[in-house]
Design goal:
Length: about 475
């Protein structure tokens, strides 16, 4: 009988689970995939490369018998109650020292709750965000673990060997205490939402104001991917515009219904940012746009009621492309700035001790928001580890100063054409508000004090003031 010889087990052999197992097996680890469904585990075993060891199991006791102790088990299942169910199914079979890893997109508050629950039972628990989709899991994802550091150190050799790496630095590192791993992954997804929305807004302008065809769009994004905008999302966008539809003679992108789905991580980022009073308007706008997109029936009715009167704008395609390149660069930086700022505030708020440089390194490869800009951010945070906001670093200021003119023109053109430019406009107003030495909220304070005696501070002396405001009668 085979006993205790496998290095790692994964519960849930869907797309992510099976690809991660294949990746681990390629690196010489003996791995087990658990799923109740025999067909799935059979398929998993069949996909193993010759010379690698992957076994499918259909019962928890079988998996526990076959894993070397202390056991290392990861679950890759949908976030929510199912994670608790998996943990409870495992509990009767787990021994002291075994390590459980939640590799899904769990909400960080669930991770905090599970840490306490399992600590009481002396079971190690690591919450680890994993990014990169199907291909990333197979060839090198970005892994964002946090929590039990001792347990992480035991997982580290496996994680380092399968993770992506950039300049020989693995895209996995211990990121911080408690639920830091899932918190970082949540904010990663928030930034992912913002960049995807920004790219869509640029597409809207290039197509509807610039009149670019899909093949021209493919070329623009492919060109941009060679320069400062080099990134996974820009790269895949170029490929998307080249894809022909196999059911019609057109492009696939034109046949896709304009209703965006969402599994919740972007919304969680916005919700938590509001709770800790951190402004992340590009991410908020991206979440809002997905919500508006789902109102398709109402949008169709409204479009008949309010037809767009598009005035023809004089368009020089080459100029528009250059302008949108710079506008996108500006707004993408604003999105990272908001996300990174949120992380540093949340780190203090939840005492997670998140290491910002490690986060940036882990995001440099394997994940959905990987981009060459992260190297620029790495330099910025290396030179100033306590950087509060990317906008405050001189290297970033150089890029922002050279691109802000373009973002203003691009937003105006979009607004003029009646195109919704939510994320890009949000990037611009965030910047304009952030760099304003004086904002008009002195008036808001006056109004609060006027109707509610909420008090205000003065610019010329310390203290808290209230005024009996004079109501001038007509
Ligand atoms: C990743 C992605 C992934 C996410 C999908 C879908 O990092 O690999 O963030 O974790 O689940 O992108 O997210 P939505 O369905 O919410 O768009």
């Amino acid at each position: 009988m085979e006993t205790a010889q496998f290095d790692f087990g994964i519960i849930g052999v869907g797309v992510m689970g099976s690809n991660l197992l294949l990746n681990l097996a390629d690196h010489g680890f003996k791995v087990l995939g658990y799923d109740k469904n025999k067909e799935k585990t059979h398929l998993l075993e069949q996909s193993a490369r010759p010379g690698t060891t992957i076994k499918g199991v259909n019962t928890i006791p079988e998996m526990m018998d076959l894993l070397a102790k202390p056991r290392k088990i990861m679950f890759l299942v949908p976030a929510g109650k199912i994670v608790d169910d998996v943990i409870n199914d495992l509990l009767p079979f787990v021994d002291d020292g075994d390590i459980l890893v939640d590799g899904g997109n769990s909400h960080y508050t669930d991770t905090l709750r599970r840490i306490t629950y399992l600590q009481d039972k002396k079971i190690h628990f690591v919450g680890a965000g994993i990014s990169g989709g199907e291909e990333g899991a197979r060839t090198g994802p970005s892994i964002m673990p946090g929590g039990d550091e001792e347990a992480y150190r035991r997982l580290e050799p496996l994680f380092v060997s399968v993770a992506a790496s950039v300049d020989n630095v693995p895209c996995v590192a211990y990121l911080g205490k408690d639920a830091a791993g899932h918190y970082v992954k949540m904010v990663h997804n928030g930034i992912e939402y913002a960049i995807m929305q920004l790219i869509s807004e640029v597409y809207d302008l290039l197509k509807n104001v610039g009149g670019l065809s899909n093949s021209e769009l493919a070329q623009v994004f492919a060109d941009w991917n060679q320069g400062e905008l080099q990134s996974f999302l820009v790269e895949i966008t170029a490929h998307i515009f080249k894809e022909a539809d196999d059911k019609t003679s057109g492009s696939l992108v034109d046949m896709i219904l304009d209703k965006a789905g969402a599994k919740g991580t972007g919304k969680w980022t916005s919700q938590d940012a509001l709770d800790i009073s951190v402004p992340i308007p590009c991410i908020d706008a991206a979440v809002t746009m997905r919500n508006i997109s789902s109102l398709k029936d109402q949008r169709v009715k409204a479009s008949a009621l309010y037809p767009i009167e598009r005035q023809t704008q004089d368009v020089n395609k080459a100029e528009l492309i250059k302008e949108l390149h710079d506008a996108l660069l500006f707004a993408v930086i604003a999105s990272y700035a908001q996300g990174l700022n949120m992380l540093s505030v949340a780190s203090v708020h939840l005492n997670m001790q998140i290491d910002m440089l490690r986060v940036i390194n882990v995001w440099k490869g394997g994940c959905i928001i990987r981009s060459s800009l992260l190297k620029v951010f790495e330099l910025a945070y290396s030179s100033d580890p306590n950087l509060q906001n990317l906008f405050l670093h001189p290297d970033i200021a150089e890029i922002i100063l050279r691109t802000q003119g373009s973002v203003r023109t691009a937003v105006s053109k979009g607004i003029q054409a009646g195109l919704p430019m939510g994320a890009m406009t949000s990037g611009l107003y965030y910047f304009d508000a952030f760099r304003a030495e004086r904002l008009p909220v002195n008036l808001v304070q006056a109004q609060r004090d006027f109707f509610g005696a909420h008090t205000y501070e003065r610019i010329d002396q310390p203290g808290v003031f209230h005024t009996e405001w004079n109501v001038v009668k007509p």
